[in-house]
């Protein structure tokens, strides 16, 4: 199974490709680049592979796309051999899987761990990047591929006094590897996004008391997680190639039953029956109950009201239930959450919900939290489930200087601008895996990662075969893509939510809908057509004379 690497790249200062990040994207990239015969160095700031699943070790962390689908599909040997123990596997198992794949493909020898890429500068005369790290490396490469992740830049809230707290603090995205013992502790959890919704039920079982500080409630659907059923596993494994193909054409990259009718085209009884069926099925397929839930506000309202009523039915305290029932955004316009006994957890005696929308957290004090009205909460531990500087954070943190000397951060001051979410004008030979402007976070991300990697590898092969050493997205193609992105997003309800998709969770971040909402299948087709037309929208040039003479 392992490829024959062109040359061991560990320590090399000149390579064909530098990849930043060793999550699923970086791993698959390295495998494909080796197949192309390209020397590659991968830099990863963590001590191991796995990306998201290396960092997010909080209790309850698990995938919300079924494991039979949230896994690599590029190798039948891999998908047949690995066995998932649950319908939605937990973080330790997903991390073990990432390591297993990396070992099976013998990838780790080309990955430099505990090394953060800090800057990259384009040399216009040589058609090369020079990449620098916090360990003093300086590596030149023809191509730079950012596999830095959409949700890899954990974010603490801007609350005064955050450093003054004398107890323990944790961020879900930087969870201690040795785990955290919450026995006999009083715990504050700040945030009620996907991470909090997974963590709270598990922390509540261990801790003396948990107070959840909620600014915005989210819609959550029960996962109906269960041990993997042998028959179900066999059903998938016996038909994997066909099912993977189908998933790649779906809007979300996830194979589940979709609807051909809108929510208001059926009777109320039929509508409710369908919502009940999806609620019992569990998971994100709930949002595919009708084909207009993300575009028609009235249809969306029926789904939102159904979930609100479920919450009211589960949570015994009426005031708490009302606080937990989201009313400020259409369902699905913030990433829908998937949980295991989240709402039920508020029926426990040791769990309390505090609304910090009407009464904000004014300060973190040495002993706990103080709200705007002066109410104090003394706690032993604070868990920040406060999310990420999503999609752009990891990219703009690296000082990437393109052909004009402008940094990516400056170029994106008014919001990210890309062509296909893969490339940016002014940054030749730089590729992003699941960058802003691609379906990425709106999809089964492993499906999107594989598509981006395959497409990029085809482009690199195309360049090499033709002696092309420089490729750059044209300004015009980029402008048109940004326009198209915005037009498609405006046809949906997504821009109505103050979500991290819009950059709304980071003060000062421009409000732009960042992922491409046209759908994974449609996007794949567009990318394929662009390639077929000789990479329309890209400018390609041959090697400068002195590089050719190297
Ligand atoms: P990542 O896994 O984020 O890896 C990027 C890597 O780049 C990181 O290891 C990081 O350390 C490294 N890096 C970044 N910057 C630098 C730098 N400057 N120098 C060196 N290294 C750097 N998606 C789904 O489709 N389904 C799910 O169920 C799902 N569940 C999720 C659960 C959680 C808790 C989170 C946070 C995200 C989840 N996601 C899910 C999204 C998830 O991020 C992707 O599915 C996928 O794991 C991303 O892989 P990646 O390789 O692109 O990025
Ligand atoms: P998130 O969705 O951005 O949630 C962050 C939470 O912190 C929000 O509830 C936010 O409230 C709150 N918050 C931030 N600052 C605050 C403040 N000053 N005061 C009070 N509350 C504050 O982050 P996340 O939960 O880590 O999830 C991010 C994404 O990662 C998800 O959307 C999903 O794509 C992925 N993920 C997936 C899973 C999974 O199920 N597999 C699990 C975890 C994460 P506001 O909404 O009011 O800003």
Care to describe what's here?
This protein has 17 helices and 20 strands. It is α/β, with parallel strands linked by helices. It has two domains: 299 residues, FAD/NAD(P)-binding domain, CATH 3.50.50; 199 residues, no CATH class. The strands form five sheets. Strands 1, 2, 3, 4, 5, 6, 17 and 18 form an eight-stranded mixed beta sheet that branches. The relative contact order is 0.14. The N terminus and C terminus are likely disordered. The site of flavin-adenine dinucleotide (FAD) has 36 residues, from helix 1, helix 2 and helix 14.
Please specify the SSE layout and strand pairing.
Elements: E1 14-20, H1 24-36, E2 40-43, H2 52-55, H3 76-81, H4 91-104, E3 111-112, E4 117-123, E5 128-133, E6 138-146, E7 168-171, E8 186-190, H5 194-206, E9 209-214, E10 220-222, H6 230-237, H7 240-249, H8 268-281, H9 297-314, H10 318-324, E11 337-339, H11 342-345, E12 351-355, E13 361-364, E14 368-371, E15 376-378, E16 381-384, H12 393-396, E17 399-401, H13 408-411, E18 430-432, H14 445-466, E19 468-473, H15 475-490, H16 520-532, E20 538-542, H17 545-548
Bound molecules: flavin-adenine dinucleotide and NADP nicotinamide-adenine-dinucleotide phosphate.
